[in-house]
């Protein structure tokens, strides 16, 4: 009888442990999928989208793109702790700085500025190497706008 109880208790303990392992495996898969989807969706940010359509009085169309540094530094730069604190951008990317290249803001229509941070995903290795303190992030900024005519 005592051997039957010991076997029964052992089986319950084994089932409880295997249930935890199975639940842990499912949550790890969900975590992996969540991270993968978040990396893919965090690639582009539209700073300005001005869809005003004035094609009759448009004088010229300007567009361009360039790589820029969008690195960040931990607010509390203590190794390992820096992984869990917010990061501040070292270089502020503002849409007005790029649209000024097309002309005066009062003469621009259909302005659109987009920042692609897809290259930040492989560059995240710098955050691991620096124990969370600094992350290098090369960002692709593209802009376009139409310039109104004087008529």
Share of helix among residues?
A: 25-40%
Strand order of the largest sheet: 1-5-7-2
pLDDT averaged over residues: 77
Name the poorly predicted regions: 1-25
**Domains (count):** 2
> Major sheet, described briefly?
4 strands, antiparallel
Topology order in helix (H) and strand (E) letters: HEEEEHEHEE
Helix count equals 3
Strand content: 25-35%
**What's the overall geometry?**
elongated
Your description of this structure?
This protein has 2 domains: 41 residues; 106 residues, no CATH class. It is 33% helix and 30% strand. Strands 1-5-7-2 form a 4-stranded antiparallel beta sheet. It has a 3-stranded antiparallel beta sheet with strand order 4-3-6. The longest helix is centred in the first third of the chain and has 40 residues. The chain is elongated, with a radius of gyration of 26 Å.
């Amino acid at each position: 009888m005592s051997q039957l109880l010991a076997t029964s208790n052992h089986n319950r303990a084994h089932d409880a442990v295997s249930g935890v392992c199975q639940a842990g495996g499912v949550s790890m898969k969900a975590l992996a999928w969540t991270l993968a989807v978040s990396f893919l969706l965090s690639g582009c940010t539209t700073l300005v989208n001005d869809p005003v359509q004035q094609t009759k009085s448009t004088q010229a169309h300007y567009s361009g793109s360039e790589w820029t540094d969008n690195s960040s530094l931990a607010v509390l730069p203590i190794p390992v702790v820096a992984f869990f604190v917010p990061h501040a951008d070292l270089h502020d990317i503002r849409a007005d700085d790029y649209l000024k290249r097309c002309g005066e803001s009062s003469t621009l229509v259909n302005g659109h500025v987009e920042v692609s941070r897809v290259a930040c995903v492989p560059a995240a290795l710098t955050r691991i190497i620096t124990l969370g303190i600094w992350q290098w992030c090369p960002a692709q900024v593209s802009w376009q706008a139409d310039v109104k005519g004087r008529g």
